Amino acid sequence: MKKILFFVCIVFSGCAKTNEDVAKELIVAKLKTQLPDFKSYESISFSSMGSSFLSFEETERYINNARAIKTFKDSAFVLQQISQGKGNSSVDSGLFVSQRIQQLQESARINDSLIRIEKRAYTPEKLSKITHSFKARDTTGIENIYKREYYFDKDFKKIIKENILSN
Predict the structure, then answer these.
(1) Dihedral, CA atoms, 21, 26, 27, 31, nearest 10 degrees?
(2) How many CA atoms lie within 13 A of 137 on its CB side?
């Protein structure tokens, strides 16, 4: 009985996917949605699994806050341009516009402060990465060789970042 259990354990542990296998599957799944002609896809090589660190400016939180700041600043600028273009606006609407501009500018300042605070407290996140070279046809039907780096979250559930090294 012990021999049978031992054999079953070896069979199941030998069939488990490695993180590298999961990463390769994630890359191929991403390429299925990115490439204009996935049927022409041909893998050339995958590097072995390496590691890298995610800088604060590459985190999703920073990117989202930076977008919000830009939106606030752009909206305030547009409202300023609109309010300056209206010479005969009513006092009530002029007051509303100036209050809204102040709110947008304050929101931008607050988000900017949050980014600075979070950056000081940020510990770079360790990621795993793989470089992949492959052939595929572009939108014109010409076959190209591509080389890209892919960075994965710690649980290998998704690709966090992709760097295009060559097209």
Answers:
(1) 140
(2) 9
